[in-house]
Amino acid sequence: MMKRFTPFLFACAAALLLIRCDDDEASSPPKTTFTVDKTSGLANDTEFTFVVDEVNAGDISLLPYGTERPNLGGIRITNFKDGKATVTFKYEEVGTFEAVVVTNNHSADGESVKSTFSDPKTVTITSNRNEISDFSFEKSTSTEIDQAARTITVVVPYGTDVTKLKAKFTASSFSTVTVGGTAQTSDGTTNDFTNPVVYTVEANDGTTVNYTVTVDVTPVEQTFDVKAATGKVLEGDLKDKVLTGAVDNDNHTIVLYGPAGAPATAFDKISLNYEMAGKFSYLKFADKKLKQDTEFDLNPDAATVEAYSQDSLGTGGTQDYRVYATDAPKLNFRFPSLVPPVEGTVEDFTVTLKVLKIAGTEFSTEAWIEELPAGVTASANDLEYQDANGNWVPFAQGDMVDYAKNVTFRLPVTDSRLDGGVTYWATYKVSVLYLQ
């Protein structure tokens, strides 16, 4: 039975649908008119003013790029005054566009839409952008672009082959970039930068600008100086204690020192961390590049490490450093002018003095050595301290020192236990705790 009536039911449904569409069919909207104050301009620069006449339509929209570029969108117009609406617009694309205004009517259910287009207005957009805003190479370290002089200077690491470099650059998407007439692709075209290379940027409007690109190769590093070093005790009662490192790049020694009285066995297992003054310099031990936290036995003998400059096979060369571990003098401080005088509390190489806040920040200072290890020579009269500008200043007993911030003192120490006599600087931090 269902198959028998199917043609009839289909015919009825089609008839009903046609009747409904006729009832809900949208009317064609009237055609509007508009004006535009310019027919040409620059992308992202020129502002165009469109004036649209109001008509009786459900929607009115301006399509600046025309119907052939619908993906670039349009502007719905709702604010009319005295029968006209003004729309300002800046084009972001270049080309010749047929701007139009479209009017729409739609049925109540939205199923039917009728559109009417105005007569088009031709607008031509060009671009005068001919700048290179970014320029680099793989692994280049810096770039300087002088837009006034039209020069670009790029710094690359030592050892870079400048005869085959691919430049990564940014220029306007509407421009073309060439070198000697050859089109350039960012990160795709190889050039020889042994001598300066001229990049020509041609804007969409035909204007050109030349940039002179110079590549500077960083000179080879010739320093093997050690900038800093620390050690850490790996076993025993002082396990995990960090030892300060005193680096002497003139005498090529690294002294890791702990608090006075530290047993020699504490230096049986010491890990070494270091920082080199040069970016490409490094240390070697036992013919291998020295890794951070490498374990050393510095009791009773020192270890020898070799410092390599980047130019280790040339002028820079290499240098042996002796690495020692020892215990340093215990130093204390007092403020004798306060009533009563204030003495410091010593914890390793940090000295804390507690004073009333009303006392100020500048105090007459005295220093003395509380504990001097056997075989060690040092005198508090040889102390120096670091001023607010970071300069080392000789200290004299009774000097007025400003403790608004922590103050670092250093003491020259000669330790006869280290290869018969090694001198190093031990540093101490003096901190003032202000009480209410």
Keywords:
disordered N terminus; 49% strand; Immunoglobulin-like; 436 residues; mainly beta; nine-stranded mixed β-sheet; 1 helix
Mass-distribution shape: elongated
Main structural class? mainly beta
The tally of helices reads 1
The unreliable regions are: 1-22
Mean pLDDT: 93
Q: What is the straight-line distance between the termini?
A: 103 Å
Oligomer: single chain
Q: List how many beta strands DSSP finds.
A: 39
Report the portion of residues in β strands.
Answer: over 45%
CATH architecture grouping of the largest domain? Sandwich
- Which value, in Å, is the CA radius of gyration? 41 Å
What is the makeup of the main sheet?
9 strands, mixed
CATH class of the largest domain, anyone?
Answer: Mainly Beta
Remind me, CATH topology of the largest domain?
Answer: Immunoglobulin-like
- Counted up, domains total 4
Organism: Dawidia soli
Protein name: DUF5018 domain-containing protein
Summarize the structure.
This protein has one helix and 39 strands. The protein has one helix at 2-24, and strands spanning 34-36, 40-42, 47-53, 59-63, 75-77, 84-90, 95-106, 113-117, 121-126, 132-136, 142-146, 151-156, 165-166, 168-171, 176-179, 182-183, 190-191, 197-202, 208-217, 226-233, 242-248, 253-258, 270-276, 282-285, 288-289, 294-296, 303-308, 318-327, 330-335, 342-343, 345-347, 350-356, 362-371, 376-377, 384-386, 392-394, 399-402, 407-415, 422-435.
